[in-house]
Design brief:
With about 260 residues, this protein is α/β, with parallel strands linked by helices. The protein has a single domain, classed as Uracil-DNA glycosylase-like domain (Uracil-DNA Glycosylase, subunit E, 3-Layer(aba) Sandwich). It has helices spanning about 1-15, 55-60, 65-80, 85-105, 105-115, 130-135, 155-160, 165-175, 185-195, 210, 235, 240-255, and strands at about 40-45, 140-145, 180-185, 215-220, 220-225. A hairpin with a 2-residue loop joins strand 4 (about 215-220) and strand 5. Helix 5 packs parallel to helix 12 (about 240-255). The two termini are about 30 Å apart.
Length: about 260
């Protein structure tokens, strides 16, 4: 049932009748939905795909991005054919090759290792490197973006607002499975879920993502631990990034008992 709901949601987004007024409506759609089911342990919400900034264009012009471009071309063709299996497989391949195994490999390895240490995901610490290299993490993580189309950073706030209903539907689908943890990366991803359902009074008003980083909050049937976007990790918290995350996960363990 959840798989059918995900497929319907995906095509509703692809057909995106409600996006005409969004400045990110660029005619090139890179949806954040990369999930064949909602039966996952953890939901990761990133802010959204970039695009249009010179620094990013230079970064994505290297060899590492060639496989991503190939995957995205196959996604575009599969969308026309309504081939959901290929859409999910190639979306995962692009994300995995570029972000998890290349650009942010150190970050994702540390993220998965920390979750394994706290028994949130069922993987042995010494097997985390293989978990990353072989893409085994897809069985545990529901991964999406708050904004679903590419664009410049300055358009992100508007795009997140326009995509909010889609994120809400993903969370509703995710609710039907057993996972209890949502991790939004960055202020825009956090604001999107707060605007959808709110986070109770334990969250200080007007607190920044830096102040909330690693803290545990109840959120309907879930818990939320906001984290700074990976790109800001070394600029802001450096080595303490995952220490704060561990503290939040420790609080989660206490809440579950």
């Amino acid at each position: 049932m959840a798989e059918r709901e995900l497929e319907k949601l995906y095509y509703d987004i692809v057909d995106r009748q409600s996006c005409d007024e969004c400045s990110r409506q660029l005619g090139v759609f890179r949806p954040g939905l990369m999930n064949e089911s909602s039966d996952k342990r953890v939901m990761l919400i990133f802010e959204g795909p970039g695009g249009g900034d010179k620094e990013e264009e230079n970064q994505r012009s290297g060899r590492k991005y060639k496989e991503v471009e190939d995957a995205l071309l196959k996604v575009d063709e599969a969308i026309k054919q309504r081939d959901m299996k290929t859409i999910v497989r190639e979306s995962q391949r692009g994300f995995d090759h570029y972000w998890v195994r290349n650009v942010q490999r150190k970050f994702f390895t540390s993220l998965f290792r920390t979750l394994a240490e706290k028994n949130v995901i069922d993987v042995e610490i010494e097997e985390v490197d293989s978990y990353v290299e072989r893409g085994k993490y897809w069985k545990d993580f529901f991964i999406t973006d708050a904004a679903l189309c590419p664009g410049k950073r300055r358009t992100l706030k508007e795009a997140v607002s326009k995509c909010q209903s889609y994120l809400g539907r993903q969370i509703t689908i995710f609710e039907g499975s057993s996972p209890k943890l949502i991790i939004p990366f960055g202020g825009y991803a956090l604001s999107s879920i707060v605007n959808l359902r709110g986070i109770p009074r334990e969250r200080p008003k007007k607190a920044t993502i830096t102040e909330l980083h690693g803290r545990l909050f109840p959120y309907d049937k879930f818990f939320v631990i906001p984290l700074l976007h990976p790109s800001r990790m070394y600029m802001t918290l450096r080595d303490s990034y995952f220490q704060y995350f561990r503290e939040g996960l420790s609080a989660l363990s206490g809440s579950s008992t």
